[in-house]
Specification:
Layout (H helix, E strand, L loop, with lengths): L1 E4 L9 E8 L3 H11 L5 E4 L7 H5 L4 E2 L4 H5 L6 H11 L6 H22 L4 E2 L13 E3 L5 H13 L4 E4 L4 E7 L4 E7 L5 E11 L8 H7 L17 H8 L4 E2 L4 E8 L4 E2 L3 H4 L3 E3 L13 H9 L6 E6 H7 L3 H8 L3 E4 L2 H7 L4 H15 L20 E13 L2 E2 L6 E3 L5 E7 L19 H22 L1
Parallel strand pairs: 1-8, 2-3, 2-10, 3-7, 10-20
Antiparallel strand pairs: 4-6, 5-6, 8-9, 9-10, 11-18, 12-13, 12-17, 14-15, 15-17, 16-17, 19-20
Bound molecules: flavin-adenine dinucleotide.
Flavin-adenine dinucleotide binds next to helix 1, helix 2, strand 17 and helix 15.
Length: 467
């Protein structure tokens, strides 16, 4: 809720800060740092006991164009090319100005994170996501967002101008009657409400993936789907914005994933597909072109019997993905099975062996250019060879992509284009660049919006305080 007050002198403030940041994922951590670097004090509030939100669950893949890391690897990329890839995927539905701005700023973000903040990221050249026309993913060595979160936390804990408080859900915003935001109410360690006076508030508390009521309203097709995102993301940032009269956009947009190990609930990285794997249903038959994208592919998986598919790959692919923390977890937890022959693998997953062999042979023929792929897939890495591996997977909702409209400075906007004074938003609270539905998500759009908008939000909020 938003609490309206006539006169701020009526309020007994418990804490005063320059900037209050709501949410401790990539957006909030980065916003706090970029603000503090400009010479202001920041109070960073995280609802949960553990820091990191969806960012910790992610593979930490941040897309950026024109970075010095790309140049060193001989990759010629540009913001315009990156934006065009995003537009092609979302059918030109995302805001052109914001999309291009994010792509232009992505280079500064990644170089600042590595060179100034000290975060470890490498340019990823061992695979390329569908729809990315250049290698532009920058990721930690573990391919896990927890590494980014842990490194950011270490930097933050060494600064005296950022106070990080976990286990402290923000319950309400406090605004004047004219709608300008002047603070918030937060419940610190379950010990009652504290009123925080803040000159600026940055909403970095992601979307509504874990709010069934909002899902039923905006994304009914995923309301009952398995939610694989962070439990803290219950949509209050967006609800506060709506209460203050902010415009929202593309509320039906979201990212899903068609490759979550089931019932183990571990992400089997999509690189298995990109490097040549395929999926079959319980009948041993392929059911779609897996290469279109992991987000929309979730819907295809959820349409199969028992909402299940088996992802099939071979030793070459297995070796190429070893080292991804999620993939290794799938091995450790027993989600992965291995067969010397395809019939042996079929037996392990109770699939019809003859049908699975037929599927494999037809797939392999297509990989060798000896026939059309029945599903229309065109990207392969050669035939699969013994030994074979399989993982039972399902489709899941990861995070929502619709949200509050913001301008290039991340100020929150009303429908007439005016701003809500003192309020900024980034990451999953703000509308992303994935168009209006599940098909528009280009790989790594999530961290693009979280990291780039987070940096801008911190800088802009600090700059407006400093005058
Ligand atoms: C399994 C998985 C893998 C993914 N992999 C990738 C990837 O490799 N690349 C990519 O680009 N995207 C990926 N994504 C998406 C990406 O993780 C998100 O888009 C991104 O992390 C969002 O960052 P954020 O800072 O907006 O939100 P989050 O990282 O979710 O942080 C939001 C934080 O706000 C807190 N919060 C919520 N409400 C309140 C409140 N009232 N008070 C205080 N705190 C609050 C939450 O507890 C949470 O910690 C993945 C998502 C998932 C689920």
């Amino acid at each position: 809720m938003v609490k309206r007050i006539k006169d701020e002198r009526e309020v007994l403030w418990d804490i005063e800060t320059d900037i209050a940041v709501v949410g401790g994922g990539a957006c909030g951590l980065i916003a706090s740092l970029s603000a503090a670097e400009k010479g202001v004090e920041v109070l960073l509030l995280e609802k949960e006991k553990k820091l990191g939100g969806n960012t910790s669950l992610s593979q930490g893949m941040i897309p950026a164009a024109g970075t010095r890391f790309q140049k060193a690897a001989g990759i010629d990329d540009s913001a315009e090319l990156m934006a065009e890839d995003i537009f092609k995927k979302n059918n030109y539905e995302s805001d052109p100005e914001i999309t291009l701005h994010l792509c232009r700023e992505s280079k500064n973000l990644v170089e600042w994170l590595v060179d100034s903040v000290g975060i470890h990221l490498d340019i990823v050249t061992d695979f390329i996501y569908p729809g990315h026309s250049r290698h532009r993913i920058h990721a930690p060595s573990t391919r896990k967002g927890t590494q980014i979160v842990n490194e950011l936390r270490t930097v933050i804990s060494n600064r005296k101008d950022i106070l990080l408080v976990q286990q402290s859900p923000v319950r309400d915003l406090i605004a004047k009657e004219d709608g300008s935001v002047i603070g918030l109410e937060v419940e610190i360690f379950g010990q009652g409400i504290n009123r925080v006076r803040a000159q600026k508030v940055i909403l970095a508390c992601n979307g509504f993936g874990n709010n069934k009521e909002m899902l039923r309203k905006y994304i009914p097709e995923m309301a009952d789907a398995f939610y694989f995102g962070h439990e803290g993301n219950t949509g209050e940032g967006i609800l506060w914005g709506i209460e203050l009269g902010t415009a929202t956009q593309h509320m039906g947009a979201y990212q899903a994933h068609g490759s979550v190990a089931y019932p183990h609930a571990i992400l089997l990285t999509w690189v298995v597909i990109v490097n040549g794997g395929f999926q079959v249903n319980k009948q041993g038959k392929r059911f779609s072109n897996e290469y279109t994208g992991y987000s929309e592919h979730a819907i295809e998986v959820l349409n199969q019997e028992d909402k299940i598919a088996i992802e099939i790959f071979d030793e070459r692919i297995y070796q190429s993905v070893l080292g991804f923390e999620d993939f290794n977890q799938c091995i450790e937890i027993g989600a992965m099975k291995r067969g010397e022959t395809i019939e042996e693998l079929a037996d392990l997953f109770q699939l019809p062996p003859k049908e699975l062999r037929k599927t494999l042979e037809s797939y392999n023929r297509a990989t060798e250019g000896k026939g059309e792929d029945p599903m229309g897939r065109q990207n392969f890495q050669g035939p699969l060879k013994s030994p074979y591996y399989g993982v039972r997977v399902t489709g899941a909702l990861f995070h929502t992509q619709g949200g509050l409209k913001v301008n290039k400075r991340t100020q929150v906007l009303k429908p007439d284009g005016s701003t809500i004074p003192n309020l900024y938003a980034g990451g999953g609270v703000a509308v992303g660049v994935s168009g209006s539905n599940v098909k528009g998500y280009s790989s790594a759009n999530g961290l693009l919006a979280a990291t780039v908008l987070g940096k801008i939000a911190g800088e802009e909020a600090a700059a407006s305080i400093k005058g």
